[in-house]
C-alpha cells in the first residue's frame, strides 16, 4: 500500500515538475539505485588479547546483468590487506570479499577501505571496521588444557 501511494505521488510530482523522478522508486525493495552493495559495510568486532591478525569478510552483491570488477583499494592504514585483485563479481552474483587486519597494540582500533570498481555508477565502495581488544577473553587455541578443564 505504501509503495502504491509513493508511486502515485512520484508520478504526480513528475507531471508537475516535468522531470523524471526515479531515485525514490528505485529504492523500493531495498536495492536502491546502486549497482553494487556491501552487506554490513561497517563491522564492529571484539578480539582476544592474543590475536595478532583479524580476518573479516564483506559480502558484496552485484545487482546488474553485467560483471563488475574490483580493481583496487586504498586502506586507511598499512595494517589492512585485501584479497587478490582484480576480482570479478558475476552478474547478479555475490562474493565474500576478504580483508585481513594486523591488530595494533592499542585497546581500540578502527579503519576504512575504499574499494575501487570498474562500474561507473559505483566507482568506490566504502567499507569500515572498528574493534576493541578484550583483555579477559583468550582464544581456545591459546588456552592450556588445564585452563580449559578447570571448572
Descriptive overview:
This protein has 2 domains: 1-29; 34-137, Immunoglobulins (Immunoglobulin-like). It is 17% helix and 43% strand. The chain has 3 helices and 9 strands; from the N terminus they run ααβββββββββα. The strands form 2 sheets. Strands 2-9-8-4-6 form a 5-stranded mixed β-sheet, with no helix packed on it. A 4-stranded antiparallel β-sheet has the order 1-3-7-5, with no helix packed on it. The longest helix has 16 residues, at 2-17. It starts with a helix and ends with a helix. The relative contact order is 0.20. Residues 1-32 and 140-151 have low confidence and may be disordered.
Q: In short, what is this structure?
A:
With 151 residues, the chain is α+β, with helices and mostly antiparallel strands. It contains 3 helices and 9 strands, in the order H-H-E-E-E-E-E-E-E-E-E-H.
Q: Give me the side-by-side strand order of the main sheet.
A: 2-9-8-4-6
- CATH class of the largest domain, named Mainly Beta
The CA-CA distance between the termini, in Å, is: 57 Å
> Could you say which structural class the secondary elements and strand pairing correspond to?
alpha+beta
CATH A-level architecture of the largest domain: Sandwich
Major sheet summary line: 5 strands, mixed
Mean pLDDT: 76
In CATH, the topology of the largest domain is named Immunoglobulin-like
Number of strands: 9
Give the ordered list of helices and strands: HHEEEEEEEEEH
Amino acid at each position: 500500500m505504501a509503495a502504491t501511494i509513493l508511486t502515485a505521488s512520484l508520478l504526480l510530482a513528475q507531471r508537475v515538475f516535468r522531470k523524471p523522478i526515479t531515485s525514490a522508486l528505485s529504492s523500493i525493495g531495498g536495492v536502491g539505485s546502486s549497482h553494487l552493495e556491501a552487506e554490513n559495510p561497517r563491522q564492529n568486532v571484539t578480539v582476544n588479547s592474543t590475536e595478532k591478525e583479524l580476518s573479516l569478510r564483506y559480502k558484496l552483491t552485484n545487482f546488474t546483468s553485467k560483471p563488475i570488477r574490483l580493481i583496487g583499494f586504498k586502506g586507511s592504514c598499512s595494517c589492512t590487506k585485501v584479497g587478490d585483485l582484480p576480482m570479478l563479481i558475476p552478474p547478479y552474483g555475490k562474493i565474500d570479499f576478504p580483508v585481513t587486519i594486523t591488530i595494533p597494540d592499542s585497546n581500540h582500533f578502527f579503519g576504512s577501505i575504499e574499494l575501487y570498481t570498474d562500474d561507473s555508477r559505483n566507482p568506490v565502495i566504502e567499507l569500515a571496521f572498528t574493534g576493541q581488544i578484550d583483555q579477559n577473553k583468550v582464544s581456545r587455541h591459546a588456552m592450556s588444557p588445564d585452563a580449559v578443564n578447570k571448572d
